[in-house]
Write a structure and sequence with these properties.
Layout: E1 4-11, H1 14-24, E2 31-35, E3 40-42, E4 46-52, H2 55-67, E5 71-78, E6 83-88, E7 94-99, E8 114-121, H3 124-133, E9 137-142, E10 146-150, E11 156-162, H4 163-170, E12 176-178, E13 182-186, E14 191-192, E15 198-201
Length: 208
């Protein structure tokens, strides 16, 4: 089974991004940072979801992100699937902070249960086949709308969504050009998918 060790975000100000990721979000080695001035504008075609146990945990992490300089795109609210909100970090990354639970069941915590990388792609079925051909196993698939891959106990989970649908979900325009400013670090090898998302071996980025 293909394992995703981490993702590498390319940022203009690495020190500032590191403060945000570690101090505000409490992330460790699952999210790496690399300085870059690669041209990029608008929607970069992906989001990172931080999955929490309960709504109070979502609120606590969301508030910490905003206090650290993130912009609120969607304030936390209940939905059909649970509870959550969306922020854009100072470096431009879109973060969904969510919980499948609609009720609080314990003391508030900022413990992150799961990190999910959601790629917005033009053709979900074609991208699904591309990734299957590169060794990923499908865990869930809903036609041409959504695919979730089986990554076991990996630090980062992977899913695919229609690009326009993902942009709508997080409250931004689907338009965007230039670099995704993202590399996916795994044991699947080095390649670029049909939508331009770059993959590298985890060892290649181990020194970041």
């Amino acid at each position: 089974m293909t394992s995703i060790a981490s993702v590498t975000l390319e940022v203009s100000d690495r020190a500032a991004a590191e403060r945000f990721c570690t101090t505000a979000l409490g992330l460790g080695g699952q999210v790496r940072l690399r300085a870059s001035e690669a041209p990029t504008s608008g929607f970069r075609g992906f989001t990172l979801s931080l999955v929490m146990s309960q709504p109070a945990d979502v609120d606590a992490l969301f508030d910490a992100a905003v206090e650290a300089g993130a912009e609120t795109l969607k304030p936390p609210a209940k939905s059909l699937w649970g509870y959550g909100g969306v922020v854009q970090a100072p470096d431009g990354t879109l973060w969904q902070i969510v919980s499948s639970s609609k009720k609080n069941t314990g003391p508030t915590s900022r413990q992150i249960d799961e990190i999910v990388l959601l790629l917005g792609v033009e053709d979900v079925k074609a991208s699904k086949q591309f990734y299957v051909d590169h060794g990923l196993a499908v865990a869930k698939s809903f036609g041409g709308k959504y695919v979730e891959f089986a990554t076991g106990s990996d630090p980062v989970k992977l899913a695919l969504y229609k690009r326009r649908g993902l942009a709508k979900l997080v409250g931004v325009s689907p338009d965007g050009t230039g670099s995704h400013r993202l590399t996916i670090d795994s044991d699947a090898g080095t390649f670029t998918d049909p939508d331009g998302f770059a993959w590298a071996t985890a060892s290649e980025n181990a020194s970041l």
